[in-house]
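Data's thin. Show one?
=====
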Amino acid sequence: MKKTAIIYSFHTKKTGKIAEKIKEEFNDEAIEMVNAEEITEEQFLAYDQAILGVPTWFDGELPNYWDEFVPALEEMDLKGKKYAIYGLGDQKGYPENFQDGIGLMAEILEEQGAEIVGFTSTEGYTYERSRGVRGNEFVGLAIDYENQASKNKTRITAWAADLKEKFD
């Protein structure tokens, strides 16, 4: 497998738990865990492919640590790189912007030439709107810890199996 990272904030409990579960599914010691709050441009570009943890904050925003990294992302050439995105959101508490974070991140990465992999079905979720949806799929793995925690393991296992086929 090419050089791969799971990039997320080490200060987020739920996003971190999902990152650990994803790494376990890959069963690959070569996957590096990287703190999104401390990542540099050079570190980000060092990976051929990465899994990004992007929860949706407030009213459909990127977390501060990702938002602060956007100007650097917008200057990068990401052609030939693959990214998978997982996000945490609350479909009942914030139905009008459920999983907006993964959609925002996907748009930014694609504008720089990156390939987004790991789309998942919107089936089984109830929400009003989402920037994270294209057609009938999320642009990544949608996790709702507040309302559907019992579905996390099944969703993570299926998503990781898909990513193993899409990553090199």
